[in-house]
Amino acid sequence: MKILVLGDPRGTNISPIIEELNTKYGPFNCCLVLGTIGGILEFPVPVYTEGRHSIGDLSIGFGTTNVDIMVTSKWPKNIEFNSAVPLNTSLDCYDIDLTSYGCLYHFATGPFFEREPFINPLGRPTRFISLSPIDSGDRYYYAFETDGPQRNDWPQHPWLFLKESTHGKRLIDGQRDEPVSKRQQRPQRTCFLCLSNPDLEKYLIIHIGNSSYITLSKGPLTVAKPEWNLPVSGHLLIIPISHDSVRNLLKNVPETQEIRYNVQQIASYYRSVSFHAVCAQLSHNTISHPFVHILPVHSSIISASGIIQYFEKTARDAGFNPVSKANFPDHFNCFTLQVYDCESDHIHELFFAINRKWIDFQFFRVNMANILNIQERISWAKCADQAIETADVQNFRKLVLPKINLQ
Ligand SMILES: [Zn+2]
């Protein structure tokens, strides 16, 4: 099956363009156009601009999910996550419905962008390609041949964070009905957070403990400022080493004891240099390593109680249910926030249960970016810079680690 896709014509007569491309790269079985066509034109192949169609075994849908080839005018939110392809613009994106997102090809309009294929929430490989309008001077067409899915060993998109591509259905149901031993046997070469993954970005690692390790957060939300008494970003992640780790941080097992101890050590150091330490954990059954963020916030920016008040509201708005520490569920899906106040000895704490199948993995980062009024740093992918991060990790090891006693 040979298919041609064209960007938005915006009034351009696409007849000669299709003729030329069809002669050069075709013959095509059909052509999909990402926009409207003016006038009555003749084409050498069937041309579709809307609706739902079948070409052989492939289904094509404009604006609908549950098809093999999907066409939308906007981009789905966060499609650029974990892509090495640079994207130097921010776009108006739509809230994607992950429960039916299983297309093999997804075409959208915008600047030209083709990210690496990834495994979608239904366990199939997706290629996302954005095409420019025809008159833009940028790439406006894409020709490809497909008979359906060919391979599925691509990395999984961090919408899910798990490499369980053949178990997509189970993830959708939000159930984990297999015994742990079977789950642990799965290869974890492509898990973004397993230390055993040869492609893990080791330059970010600051410390490795017995059951957890500490990294600089890739594309950290905050950067060091010369007027502050902290020579590093300080935005860290404490990540359980085990691929299937304990999710309730309040549980008293060695793994959580180590994480809690290290959080306290780092937080006391941040406090000693006039920063609140904001610690957050999002634990959900779609996340394999429920890591803890630690973010230093200078006390001149906001009070610790101001941060707590902000999250009290936004967490409720997100549909999280506040629970007391005593009644904190022994539960997969929860969000915990602790703010170590540097102006008192107080530790402010919030606990929420989450009764949702799908959550925004960036919940903490987006809210902190809003609190700090640095919305331009919401996307970690846009903030990522290996040279800056390597220097920051080295500074942390040299200047801060000697002052902290970690397990
Ligand atoms: Zn893992």
UniProtKB/TrEMBL annotation:
A GO molecular function held by the record:
RNA lariat debranching enzyme activator activity
Start and end residues of each Cwf19-like C-terminal domain: 182-305
Which InterPro entries does this chain map to? Cwf19-like (IPR040194), Cwf19-like_C_dom-1 (IPR006768)
Q: Which GO terms describe its biological process?
A: mRNA splicing, via spliceosome
Query: What's one GO-annotated cellular component?
Result: post-mRNA release spliceosomal complex
Any Pfam family from its record, for instance, is CwfJ_C_1
Recorded protein name is Cwf19-like C-terminal domain-containing protein
- Its source organism is Tortispora caseinolytica NRRL Y-17796
